[in-house]
Amino acid sequence: MSNLDRQAALTVCGGRGFVVAEPVRELLSPRRVQLGESTEVRRLLPNLGRRMVGAWAFVDHYGPDDIADESGMQVPPHPHMGLQTVSWLHEGEVLHRDSLGSLQTVRPRELGLMTSGRAISHSEESPRPHARFLHGAQLWVALPDAHRNVEPHFQHHANLPAVTAPGLTATVILGTLDGTTSPGTTYTPLVGADIALTADTEARLPLDPDFEYAILAMSGAAEVDGVPVLPGSMLYLGSGRTHLPLRADSDAGLMLLGGEPFEEEIVMWWNFIGRSNDEIKQARTDWTSGTRFGEVKGYDGPPLPAPALPPVPLKSRGRVR
To answer: Residue 223: is it exposed, middle or buried by C-beta count within 10 angstroms (0-12/13-18/19+)?
Structure first.
């Protein structure tokens, strides 16, 4: 997935200096961003209040949108480096193409995981014909320095393991939850899980106290540790938790995101994660000149042009503002 902001800002993220080392309840509001021709997303990370949760560095929530008479998601070929993209759907389909030759339709509750490593490009679009509704989340995971130049690859997992309890099903998207591990490749200790709650459910989800966590509200109305969360919002939970109380009076959908606090400082701009301003500039030059990131074949349209780099020098601000 792409950050289509035409005035993308250089941002320094990571480091443990601002990690909340105790349980908190910090509600994050989204910023609305246009994605492609007809999809508006609610951007939760990076946020004015918080830039990362573990290695999770970018979170967009979109839908549910009625696209019966529209083209739906149409994101032209664009580059990535230094990160993994995670496509997660509750409704609809997304057709993934990349410069490795991958062609895959991702459907609800299936994992589309692309590891960019040193360089890759891809496109995402609603198939033709497509389902009436589109609803999901697009996320990035920052790669640690030791693995950020791995060979790019794409994984699709249609069947994922789940943790169950009365009224609760937690599908493990990435990492490990309560001893259950996703087949998706990870490079840092983290977890991503899709939580379905049925009406009149009260449950306690086991957590790792060394991880920091956040909950993304996808649908319905639920309470997380006593805090009401509505769709399109994110509740940052800090760390030091061994369990998380959940409550739903009606059916609700949540995403749990967590991981060990990311020690390294990273530079994130547009669709790149690097370690320095010069590295980001070089990546932009390589994309603009048509080198390094390869070619996405089969998409009906030109690749996405890179926005101009900001004229101001890069400033380190840590994990929160």
So the answer is: middle
The domain total for the chain is: 1
On whether residue 253 sits in a domain, the answer given is: yes
CA distance 235 to 229: 7
Closest to 271 (Cα-Cα) out of 95, 47, 85: 85
- Give 167-188 pLDDT, tens digit per residue: 999 999 999 999 999 999 999 9
Q: What angle do CA 250, 251, 255 make, to 5 degrees?
A: 125
Q: Residue positions in the annotated binding site for Fe cation?
A: 78, 80, 122, 124
The per-residue pLDDT for range 252-282, each reduced to its tens digit, is 999 999 999 999 999 999 999 999 999 999 9
Give the whole-angstrom CA distance, residue 186 versus residue 53. 15
pTM (2 d.p.):
0.92
The answer, yes or no, to whether residue 223 has pLDDT greater than 70, is yes
* Residues listed for the chain: 321
Cα distances (angstroms) measured from residue 84 to each of 57, 72, 105, 148, 277: 10, 23, 18, 9, 20
Q: Are 95 and 299 a contacting pair, CB within 8 Å?
A: no
Residue 21 has pLDDT above 80, yes or no: no
Buried b (16+ CB within 10 A) or exposed e, 91-104: bbbbbbbbbbebeb
Domain containing 29 equals 11-259
**CATH number of the domain encompassing residue 154:** 2.60.120.10
Q: Which residues are annotated as a binding site?
A: 78, 80, 122, 124
- Write the DSSP string, 145-166: TTTTTSPPEEEEES---EEEET
Task: Report d(CA 257, CA 237) in Å as an integer.
Answer: 10
